[in-house]
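Try this one yourself first.
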């Protein structure tokens, strides 16, 4: 089997950048503006519901960007928490914009008590994106 690869797996537009992660987050940041979400996302819901979901999604994307920035100021020990909240808010913003779902206020994880910090774990429950 010949598995030679020439080029990128990406389809459509792709960006050449010295810092591709920052370029990707720059594109994501566009979703955090009312103008972009109004002009480029086509709703399938009623106008008043879409207006509420759009505002919700814009705020969540902005929060995701801010949490990511905050994580860069922390050490390796404490940066996973703001990164988690960045991903959570980005997911909620995407759900509000794409399938037009307004998630619950729960994040979907419950802490299971353990004898030590190293034994702690979380269980997935109803919350973001789950009924």
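Now uncover the answer:
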């Amino acid at each position: 089997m010949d598995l030679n690869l020439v080029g990128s797996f990406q389809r459509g537009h792709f960006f050449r950048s010295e810092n591709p992660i920052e370029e990707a987050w720059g594109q994501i940041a566009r979703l955090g503006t009312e103008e972009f979400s109004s002009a480029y996302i086509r709703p399938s819901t009623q106008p008043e519901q879409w207006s509420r979901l759009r505002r919700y999604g814009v705020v969540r994307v902005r929060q995701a960007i801010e949490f990511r920035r905050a994580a860069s100021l922390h050490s390796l020990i404490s940066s996973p928490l703001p990164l988690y909240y960045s991903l959570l808010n980005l997911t909620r913003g995407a759900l509000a914009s794409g399938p037009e779902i307004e998630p619950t206020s729960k994040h979907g994880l419950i802490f299971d008590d353990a004898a030590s910090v190293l034994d702690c774990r979380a269980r997935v429950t109803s919350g973001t994106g789950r009924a």
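Discussion: The mean pLDDT is 77. Residues 20-102 form one domain.
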